[in-house]
Amino acid sequence: MANHEHGGGEMMRRALCLAGICSAALVPAAAIAADAEEICFGMSIEGSEKALHLSQFGQDKLTTISNGYLFIDLRYVSAPYKVQRVGSGIAVNGMLVSCPLRGNLPSVARIAAAEKNWQDPLHGYKPDSYKKAAQANAIILRTALQYDSAVFLSGSKNKVMQLPIKGRFKKESFQRLLRILLRKETPEERLVTLRKLIKEGKLVYYAGEVFKTAEDLKQFEQRSMQSTNFMARATALLAEGEETDSPRPRAVPKK
């Protein structure tokens, strides 16, 4: 599986992952430190890492999607999107976008059951349940992208075996959001407009989850608006929206 180049911070992500930030509640620190191939959300992967449990779960066929808009921690990921379930994780363009299981499967199940902080989608701890949960998450992501949705994934929402969606916008809703994001205003001014439209019901509440502060808007500028690919697609999408919003000519009545 090809690696995806996604900027700096790789060493920091590895340090956080080894410290157990991704799923510290489920696995003891000693177990995490013992795994030499520890991986977590946002990392480039080869697809053969031990932590993916590939031998138990195998992998699904890779699907290439040209539609949609994917953002990882406010950074635009260029299409096309090569989505694949690999073991207990999900990868897009060679980047892990979910938090897979940690440690050996029986240990994970026992710890989760004892601490009562695991909500398995299929209400069970059989290994096959984890595989099905990962498959379900992959379907959710593929479907969202295929229908031209904008999907924002975030490490702050990252929980074991869950797709860390912070916001998901249908095409028309994303067009409205883009009009605000690309305004020639300060981040603070854009945030005021964004909150006003959410309050008036003209913008979905997800927008407030993704962009809670002016700092979020600044990061979006740095991580996505500097991308030539993103700006080209955003401009085309907005132009398409203008055509849709324009009033249709009245039909000439027949004599």
Describe what you observe in this structure.
- This protein has 255 residues and is an alpha+beta fold.
- The protein has two domains: 10-168, no CATH class; 170-245.
- Helices cover 42% and strands 12% of the residues.
- It contains ten helices and eight strands.
- It has helices at 10-18, 29-34, 54-57, 105-115, 127-146, 171-181, 187-199, 206-210, 214-223, 228-245; strands at residues 63-65, 69-72, 75-77, 81-86, 89-92, 95-96, 150-153, 165-169.
- The strands form two sheets. A four-stranded antiparallel beta sheet has the order 1-4-5-6, with helices on one face.
- Helix 6 (171-181) crosses helix 10 (228-245) and helix 7 packs across helix 9.
- The longest helix is centred in the middle third of the chain and has 20 residues, at 127-146.
- The chain is elongated.
- The model is unreliable at 2-36, 111-124 and 243-252 (pLDDT under 50).
